[in-house]
Design goal:
With about 200 residues, the chain is an alpha+beta fold.
Length: about 200
């Protein structure tokens, strides 16, 4: 990641001035250019997009998976570009920034967010975890297919781990999945997938 400006800006300023090319986020008023994902990261993202899309179609859910939408923070001048974002299409009518800026800010619009861990793992485990919880997003996956995260999150010795955070009484409760553990998702309860199948997508 590379911070582009020293001057802090608002989310509104970010949405109206961010470059069209490249991938950018706003972190507490600072514009950050996201590093180009490595091939394995893209393969895991693509695999999960296909699996989620298949479940949406099979269950006939009114969900969609946008390519470049942003999620606005509830309490800071921040906007994030998740690796995989599932949206509840009927709820988008209540999103003030959706039509013009492809940006959502309400938990009711976002059944599921998935972040694929890279070298900036602290963003996924600290910053975004807290922000997504505050927004009220029901389910948040952290896919740490290389086992990069801190030991307080994935244990010791480090190993590939999928952490699924579910919102319970406005707080996230986490379940960890490794190896041949079958994924348990509240968004896709019939999903027939193991953690290892997801990790293998990047190999």
């Amino acid at each position: 990641m590379a911070q582009l400006l020293t001057k802090l800006i608002t989310v509104e300023e970010f949405l109206t001035t961010k470059p069209e090319k490249g991938r950018y986020e706003l972190h507490n008023g600072a514009v950050v250019e996201m590093a180009q994902p490595i091939g394995e990261h893209e393969e895991v993202t693509g695999f999960l997009t296909i699996e989620a899309s298949a479940e949406i179609k099979r269950l006939q859910l009114s969900y969609s998976i946008p390519k470049t939408a942003l999620v606005q923070s509830a309490s800071s001048e921040s906007a994030y570009s998740p690796d995989l974002l599932v949206l509840n299409k009927p709820a988008l009518k209540s999103e003030e920034l959706w039509k013009k800026y492809s940006t959502v800010q309400l938990g009711a619009s976002i059944p599921l967010i998935i972040e694929i861990v890279s070298t900036n793992w602290r963003d996924d485990y600290y910053r975004k975890l807290g922000e997504y919880e505050e927004i009220g997003i029901p389910e948040y996956w952290v896919v740490d297919y290389l086992g990069l995260g801190g030991t307080k999150f994935i244990g010791k010795p480090k190993q590939p781990t999928l952490s699924i955070y579910n919102l319970v009484d406005n707080e996230y409760q986490v379940s960890l999945f490794r190896g041949n553990d079958r994924i348990i998702s509240s968004t896709f309860p019939e999903l027939n997938l193991t953690a290892q199948q997801i990790f293998d997508a990047g190999n």
